[in-house]
Amino acid sequence: MATVLHLKPLYRAPPAPQESPAQRRVRLGSRAAVWLFTSVFALAAAILVAAIATMLFYKGELVRIGPDNCYIGEAPANTVAFSSLPLGHRLVYVAVGIARATPILMMFWSLRALFAGYARGEVFSAQAARRFGRVGAWLCAYAVSPFLCHVVLAATHYEIDKNWAHMASLQAFILGLLVFVIGQVMQVGREIEQDREAFV
User: Fold this and answer.
1) Which of 94, 129, 164, 185 has its CA 20 to 30 A from that of 119?
2) Residue 159 pLDDT level (bands cut at 50, 70, 90)
3) What is the pTM of this model?
4) For residues 20 and 87, what is the distance between their CA atoms, to the nearest angstrom?
5) Which residues of 93-104 are buried (b: 16+ CB within 10 A; e: fewer)?
6) Which of 68, 101, 70, 106 has its CA nearest to residue 85?
7) Phi, psi of 72 (to 5 degrees)
8) What would the pLDDT profile of 78-136 be if each residue is shown by its tens digit?
């Protein structure tokens, strides 16, 4: 006759913490934000590719450039068809377009990574603070890119559109600087919290 013994485990893992309604809202909202910024990133990349293709291969008169702006359709008399520019000149403007669009693309990608971390529960982590700071850094890069491109174009005498100074760039730089600093503050706060946990 066999005897069966029922032994209780010596260690029982603590139950998984329950997700609060606020945490659930943050997770679900962050998932929606990931889809949003993925879509916006894809749209911005598609616009950049279309703009590059237009600058290189479009042969019509519809796209024009002048000292105040680029135009599609109706344009002032002091503009020229972009397709009439020499290939070298068009290639320079392709490089300028890439230089000005890259910070926008990277900002959207950084926002996507930030909210993907939030969706995984990485809200007050060191990684989240770094991602937050990257968003601010790319926003600052977006703000200064028109000026840097203006300096290079003016120095090389390729500049046609001289309307580079915009109040929106200053606003974007200030906002980006604030976001970057907040990311640094979040990192410092996380380090203080880790030191406190280690001390206890």
Assistant:
1) 185
2) confident
3) 0.78
4) 60
5) bbebbeebbebb
6) 70
7) -120, 115
8) 788 888 888 888 899 899 999 999 999 999 999 999 999 888 888 778 888 889 899 99
